[in-house]
């Protein structure tokens, strides 16, 4: 992407079921376009849990930070608290393009918070999700099967319009769709 800096930034929610490849696509997009920035989430899970790069917090610390206004967005999902730092509001106001890994439950609030907002829904075929989740090793048996079932219903009832990206067939075609959606939103 080339061109002049944006007068108003863009907040991009990257959403989808576990195993769809959200973090992989965001990392590839960040490597491709230096104008993109990543909002590093704060999560109440152990720092060594693996997966995305995040800031670990205890529940007590998270609650104190939320009460102090440290988060632009926060939510509870899958037994954990998640937060997007309040600094993201300023970054977008200054014209930055910020990627945020969000929960579907936070989308309406995020869309209301940011004047320019794009939702990229990342998905993959069920057998691809199952293989990726099994390789991750966090769930097995019925827990893994339940995640796959939920993934099939993930996009139902979303509160905002979404651009759907299929990440079943490798990073290259999905990354092209991802970057194309961002270019379109910046016009």
TrEMBL record:
SMART domains according to UniProt: GuKc
Leading EC class: transferase
UniProt: ATP binding residues: 16-23
Record bears the keyword Lyase: no
Gene3D superfamilies assigned to the protein according to its UniProt record, in alphabetical order: P-loop containing nucleotide triphosphate hydrolases (3.40.50.300)
Reaction catalysis annotation: alpha-D-ribose 1,5-bisphosphate + ATP = 5-phospho-alpha-D-ribose 1-diphosphate + ADP
Stored HAMAP family: PhnN
Similarity comment: family membership: Belongs to the ribose 1,5-bisphosphokinase family.
The protein's name: Ribose 1,5-bisphosphate phosphokinase PhnN
């Amino acid at each position: 992407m080339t061109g002049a800096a944006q007068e108003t930034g863009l907040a991009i929610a990257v959403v989808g079921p576990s195993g769809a490849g959200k973090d992989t696509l965001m990392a590839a997009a960040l490597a491709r376009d230096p104008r993109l920035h990543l909002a590093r989430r704060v999560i109440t899970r152990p720092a060594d849990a693996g997966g995305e790069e995040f800031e670990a917090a205890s529940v007590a610390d998270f609650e104190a930070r939320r009460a102090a206004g440290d988060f632009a967005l926060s939510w509870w999902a899958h037994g954990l608290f998640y937060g997007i730092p309040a600094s993201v509001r300023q970054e977008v106001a200054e014209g930055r393009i910020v990627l945020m890994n969000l929960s579907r439950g936070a989308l309406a609030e995020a869309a209301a918070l940011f004047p320019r907002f794009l939702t990229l829904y990342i998905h993959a075929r069920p057998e691809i999700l199952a293989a990726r989740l099994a390789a991750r090793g966090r769930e097995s048996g019925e827990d893994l099967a339940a995640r796959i079932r939920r993934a099939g219903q993930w996009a139902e009832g979303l509160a905002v319009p979404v651009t759907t990206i299929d990440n079943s067939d490798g990073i290259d075609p999905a990354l092209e769709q991802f970057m194309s959606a961002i270019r379109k939103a910046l016009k």
